[in-house]
């Protein structure tokens, strides 16, 4: 199966369980790998036939920057649902990183894999 990917998409959001985290915005980093048959756009050379990574990135920036969750797990689940439901993707692997959240670690976060029902 082919994939379309988005790597290192940085978005600021209100996220975290601690009081101090409710008062600031933190940068989150998203990596997505989305299953898609790229032979169709390859044959037509038409953007309309692609899984358009720019359109998906724009939608995720819009959603995540307005979001307000405690856990990265919750946000990751919502973002995966948007990709599956709104863009007709069959399966998505998503890594959500929270850089600098834990002293000594470059980043912490979650990785999930979800498929359309
Ligand atoms: N599995 C998780 N562990 C933790 C989370 C989380 O969202 N998922 N969040 C925190 C705090 O918000 C942390 O990021 C602040 O440094 C701690 N553990």
UniProtKB/TrEMBL annotation:
Pathway info: Cofactor biosynthesis; tetrahydrofolate biosynthesis; 2-amino-4-hydroxy-6-hydroxymethyl-7,8-dihydropteridine diphosphate from 7,8-dihydroneopterin triphosphate: step 3/4
Catalytic activity: 7,8-dihydroneopterin = 6-hydroxymethyl-7,8-dihydropterin + glycolaldehyde
Entry keyword annotation includes Lyase: yes
GO molecular function list: dihydroneopterin aldolase activity
Annotated SUPFAM superfamilies: Tetrahydrobiopterin biosynthesis enzymes-like (SSF55620)
Top-level division of the source organism's lineage: Bacteria
Keywords: Folate biosynthesis, Lyase
All residue ranges annotated as the Dihydroneopterin aldolase/epimerase domain in the record: 4-114
InterPro entries reported for this sequence: Dihydroneopterin_aldolase (IPR006156), FolB_dom (IPR006157), GTP-CH-I_C/QueF (IPR043133)
Stored Pfam families: FolB
EC number: 4.1.2.25
Function: Catalyzes the conversion of 7,8-dihydroneopterin to 6-hydroxymethyl-7,8-dihydropterin.
Family, as annotated: Belongs to the DHNA family.
Protein name listed in UniProt: 7,8-dihydroneopterin aldolase
